[in-house]
Amino acid sequence: MPEIVDLRSDTVTKPSPEMRRAMASAEVGDDVFGDDPTVLALEARSAELTGKEAALFVASGTMGNLVAHMAHVPRGGEIIAAAESHLSLDEAAGHAVISGASLRLLPADADGRMDLQGIEDSIYDDSDVHMAPTGLVVLENTHAISGGQPLSVAYTDAVAGVAHAHGVPVHVDGARFFNAVVALETTAATLLRNVDSATFCLSKGLACPIGSVVVGSRDFIFRARRARKMVGGGMRQVGVIAAAGLVALQDGPAGMIERLADDHANARRMAEALAAMPGIGHLDPARVTTNFILFGVMHPGQGRMDRPDRDLRSRFIAACEAEGLLLIAYPNGLVRAVTHYGIEAEHVDRAIAVIRNALAAVGAAPAPAVAAR
Ligand SMILES: Cc1ncc(COP(=O)(O)O)c(C=O)c1O
Description:
14 helices
């Protein structure tokens, strides 16, 4: 059996040797007492990198978003977010169950952007007893369902302008925030300059085994820290995991941010190869600007943008798996491949070959003349 190429997600990344060394030798203390020097260093580095006053280390992106909502939105308030955002689909309704907030979901365009006028029209103050007053606008950057599109500095600033004009804060769900920073060739501080808070994940493209960071003002982080305590997220000698984050957030080739450009280049190359294959639909390689490749598996005779058949997709994913390539089913009948740390050019070549064979095996494309190995 050849080596498994796992493109299901960038969450499957394993810590680098430098991370493991840093974890083994990390100085630790009781973080609930504020005594863990490695956590304090990670929080200081995160604040510095994002241009915010303070930061809070949390267990996951979901926890980071949740404590941010709790810190921003009074119970009975409303959060504006894009339909099909992670917050609305994949966070177990924590906004409702724990924060006590309703969601106002707005459609996003193909690039993951909600309409600015639509946001403004959806903001309610507390003057009408019928309405839940708007407590927060959330942007997801990169925006997963649109194929990992990065939301630009100009758009982020514009949303902040609209929200702030009504006294409403803006939070960025940045599970893959540094993919956006790298794709946009900007800095984290520039991309966040006008928003109030953000969560970014260490455990995805940055390859740490666990953890996310919430950034914002000192007051906001104090409230988020209280919320983290409330949901049981106060951890003790967690310098052992924060140490990996400090490795990831180093500048230049020593850290894990700059190398995200390699993941993006690998994704683009794979997308270009896939888009040229019969049996592949819903894929425009020019739109692959970060580390997501979304595509449909099409029957012969179907148009490239027709509705993909889910049964065909299941058979295709199983055929890839049988050849050692792991992919994942994604909303709207699509398949997702994600490039990440540990995926090199040869793995991309192998993935392309396996996909070509699998398309033939499930009858989506004619058999290749020579079976690729
Ligand atoms: C956009 C987005 N936000 C938040 C999360 C949640 O992160 P975690 O899995 O660390 O809870 C994810 C996870 O994939 C995500 O894609």
